[in-house]
Amino acid sequence: MTTLQSRPAPPTAIRPRVVARTGLYALLAANAVIVAVLFADAGFGSNALILIGRLAGLYGALVMAFQLLLVARLPWLDRRIGMDRLTSWHRWTGFTVLWTLLAHLVFITFGYAQLSSLDPVDQLVDLAETTEGVLRAIVAFALIVTVGAVSARWARRRLAYETWHFIHLYTYLAVLLAFSHQVAAGTTFTASTAARAYWYTVWGTALGAVLVGRLVLPLWRNLRHRLRVTAVVAESDTVVSVYVTGRDLDRLPAAAGQFFLWRFLTPGRWWQANPFSLSAAPDGRQLRLTVKTAGEGTAALRRIEPGTRVFAEGPYGAFTTLHRTRPDSLLIAGGVGITPIRALLEDIEGHAVLLYRVTAERDAVLYEELSELAAAKGAQLHLITGPADPDLLAPRELARLVPDIGDRDVFVCGPPGMTAAVLRHLRDMGVPKRQIHFERFSLAG
């Protein structure tokens, strides 16, 4: 089999993910310093417990605003970091918010109880009744505790996404209540014009980012492109491809490897958003998604009529060639995880090797066109069939199939168990972390 001549590796001095991550860290650190300066400028007072409580509340507010930025779905951040990593960071910062606000509540209550000689419960009731904004803060904290409880892994697994998402929306109400408490009762907020300007800027930026990324940009793109289904093609008994077209698709900033949140505007389905990756590189004329039946929602895709309007949020994801560090690539796919890998194979430059892992040949979705595409690109395609045990993608097998694996970028997409095992094998084989690319294609949470 002939191969394409390898092209020079793309620049690796400054990697996009490192730039974005460093920028986020620097932004958070700079704001943490500003909060400390404004806190000191407001004066310390004489009660240590109240002092600690105030500082905890300020940092809780800062992290809450940062949390909103992480899930604003801003294209610049999403392309460089990926929705899966951003939402994972959002989840962990959420627990930071919970603990800092709990510290704020406890230390403030016990501090004022020391001054008034009331017991902590009576003191909290007294603050809620006599101090403007405190009752709103207590309600906000209760909402955050509720959202945190349903976001715990044991609860998240037991809830439908729509239920979890509906409860999660109360976070925005908690944010507004917390901010109103800060305006009414925050000592640092009321201490100076500079402090007020700073906190209005922080909250305005965070809420504005959410409004733009989650509402304005999707609405604008859908009004501009007016997407609709043009064809539904059964690839097998359990897999279907949906072709979508629209206006000015050459101006839609989608890349091979990315995904959209798709809403097909039919009765009973318009409110369901499903994350499906593109199974072909965008060509400016149409988009294609290929889906395996995994429930009633995905099974219904077979019955969608051509002409059906589509509302698509995205594109999302960092599983693209933007993050390449080497001239040659290894693509590893399992099952229907072949869909973004197939799009990447079409788009990728340099020599590529594709390992496609399925249980049986009949499960190899899009295999015929993969073979044609591999031949046209001068790529090597290996179909690996068999049961999960033994591991046919173990280090020895990977080294046999791809002897120069350490000199390639590796893109991995498949079922969670397979993906985790392959990532572990790549680390054991000494493949540098910067050359390993993967993404979990799912909704936030």
Automatic annotation (TrEMBL):
InterPro entries: FAD-bd_8, FAD-bd_FR_type, Fe3_Rdtase_TM_dom, FNR_nucleotide-bd, MRET, OxRdtase_FAD/NAD-bd, Riboflavin_synthase-like_b-brl. GO terms for molecular function: 2 iron, 2 sulfur cluster binding; flavin adenine dinucleotide binding; metal ion binding; oxidoreductase activity. Keywords: 2Fe-2S, FAD, Flavoprotein, Iron, Iron-sulfur, Membrane, Metal-binding, Oxidoreductase, Transmembrane, Transmembrane helix. Its cofactor is FAD. Residues 222-322 form the FAD-binding FR-type domain. The keyword Iron applies. It is a multi-pass membrane protein. GO terms for cellular component: membrane. It is found in: Membrane. Pfam families: FAD_binding_8 (PF08022), Ferric_reduct (PF01794), NAD_binding_1 (PF00175). The chain crosses the membrane at residues 24-42, 48-71, 92-113, 133-155, 167-185, 197-217. The keyword Chloroplast does not apply. This is Oxidoreductase. It comes from Streptomyces diastatochromogenes.
